[in-house]
């Protein structure tokens, strides 16, 4: 997608420096900052501190991190150390382990002299595949929006609601939940998106920044406004992303997603999840019992990261009493029974083990 008229991916390989460049998302939407990753710790820190975030982008970053490690020292020991360091950064998003496992299958059988170029090519291929996967999610999601639009009075927009940021900045390009929005807008379908702020990190501001840059009408709302809007018929469809989906269709996503799904069910609003097949964990069936939920630093609750003050400085602000105890579970699990459908790169299916296995017979086994 474009920033100030210039096309960017969320990460790219700098050929002249032989290093990965990322958009440091901590500063968005106030400042557009890029960073070159020059050490193994840089890669790990970028993932843990949400300089890069979103399950697909985390996986792509880790793939390039493996290439970096093999560039420095192409030994089994160095690979396993990189695997361990990266895997420990974000335990919930399955794309991280998925990318690391695939990198291991590519790299370890090779002679040491062949490992860096092979790992780098694997990372390039993974990034390119992510772009095409997300484009196809948009193509299939477009048809759902088109069908909703056909049933509305002429000129009335399709009102979407999304939670967290599952946009191009959370993938290599296009995004998952936002991809159908971009496709619908570009196809001339009138849409409007309600954007949840998504505390505690306020990732909704990233979605707002994205949609605004693309010219898509949207309104920024507090997390708890969604149910009210659904009660009053102001939401036609909820669409969110996911960090891990079980083989039975349970969806693990940013904390607060479950409450949106409950409100949607109570008000007859379709609730869709946009996901690449790489976020399906075929080893897990019961999301509530089996998916580890990341507990993040309480400072994300006690402080706002980052805000612009009255004189235009980007800073953090404490909003709680000194010394207060906080809890910060980063994700929750939405049971498959609350999900209307899963929008994947191969099409739309119901959230069930049978439907997912039929959509991905080559992966389900």
From TrEMBL:
PANTHER family: METHYLTHIORIBOSE-1-PHOSPHATE ISOMERASE. The record marks 164 as: Transition state stabilizer. One of its GO terms (molecular function) is S-methyl-5-thioribose-1-phosphate isomerase activity. HAMAP family: Salvage_MtnA (MF_01678). Keywords: Amino-acid biosynthesis, Isomerase, Methionine biosynthesis. This is Methylthioribose-1-phosphate isomerase. InterPro entries: IF-2B-related, IF-M1Pi, IF_2B-like_C, Initiation_fac_2B_a/b/d, M1Pi_N, NagB/RpiA_transferase-like. Its EC number is 5.3.1.23. Belongs to the EIF-2B alpha/beta/delta subunits family. MtnA subfamily. It is an enzyme of class 5 (isomerase). One of its GO terms (biological process) is L-methionine salvage from methylthioadenosine. The active site is at 243 (proton donor). Pathway: Amino-acid biosynthesis; L-methionine biosynthesis via salvage pathway; L-methionine from S-methyl-5-thio-alpha-D-ribose 1-phosphate: step 1/6. Pfam families: IF-2B. Catalyzes the interconversion of methylthioribose-1-phosphate (MTR-1-P) into methylthioribulose-1-phosphate (MTRu-1-P). Also catalyzes the interconversion of 5-deoxyribose 1-phosphate and 5-deoxyribulose 1-phosphate. Part of a bifunctional DHAP-shunt salvage pathway for SAM by-products. The keyword Cytoplasm does not apply. Substrate binds at residues 53-55, 90, 203, 253-254. It comes from Cognatiyoonia sediminum. Gene3D superfamilies: translation initiation factor eif-2b, domain 1, Translation initiation factor eif-2b, domain 2. It catalyses: 5-deoxy-alpha-D-ribose 1-phosphate = 5-deoxy-D-ribulose 1-phosphate; 5-(methylsulfanyl)-alpha-D-ribose 1-phosphate = 5-(methylsulfanyl)-D-ribulose 1-phosphate. The keyword Isomerase applies. Coiled coil: none annotated.
